């Protein structure tokens, strides 16, 4: 049985909702999305589709090869779809968390975070180098468990399509029960923010419960409005620069680093440096917590 590619089928929906959101922004704020930023995101999205088409056969072949060593036989059925969808979303959470904690993975994923805007076109800003960064590794256990390769690919596509609608400021909050279980625009705005409070939080794809269970959840606060982008702004609308700038940065660091530090620039967290001269998300958050502590102490003393 051949399952369709949900991303391809969703393209008309993407186009219609991009236009609707642009109209909403124009009406609500007097201006629509920056056309340069949107053009960069759409170009990156088209490039990602092309890159995915070129490498999908290799990944599928690897999945099919691993599937012969499966632990159990799982048929295509409604219940196996539900199980696979949840398992795939947890695999996505693990990948996404690693993509912010390991520079080699981040070099590919940073593309998605490089926009300083936050709208539906941002969802289309996808990597061209996912295969190089080995982001498919996190889904390989699903084939060994016994989920059919076509089902895994179908669930992965649905996961990506779901995440499209959460890239917007047009929706403030969903009902409380929905916010408790599912990833929403509010939760994902936190994830795209560079505010110290929000750095490296809310990795969920579909179910926010993974973040709640594993200690990476942070709610959006009205008194700390998200500021979007990356800690060191890209400063360019050039799609090629957006796609490759972190890989170039890695190459420069590896070539200049002494000894074994070269390897650390591949596998340590983004921002790590052998001489401690750069900021990581931990050092940024530590300074923020210290500052918050001093502010709170001043408030107590003033009272």
UniProtKB/TrEMBL annotation:
Residue stretches spanning the membrane: 6-25, 46-65, 77-95, 151-167
Subcellular location: Endomembrane system
Membrane topology: Multi-pass membrane protein
Keywords: Lipid metabolism, Membrane, Oxidoreductase, Transmembrane, Transmembrane helix
InterPro entries associated with the record: Fatty_acid_hydroxylase, Sterol_desaturase/TMEM195
Main localization, broad class: membrane
Residue span(s) of domain Fatty acid hydroxylase: 81-216
The keyword Endoplasmic reticulum is annotated on this UniProt entry: no
PANTHER family named among the record's database cross-references: ALKYLGLYCEROL MONOOXYGENASE (PTHR21624:SF1), STEROL DESATURASE-RELATED PROTEIN (PTHR21624)
Protein name: Fatty acid hydroxylase
Naturally occurring in which organism (per UniProt): Sphingomonas astaxanthinifaciens DSM 22298
Biological classification of the source: Bacteria, Pseudomonadati, Pseudomonadota, Alphaproteobacteria, Sphingomonadales
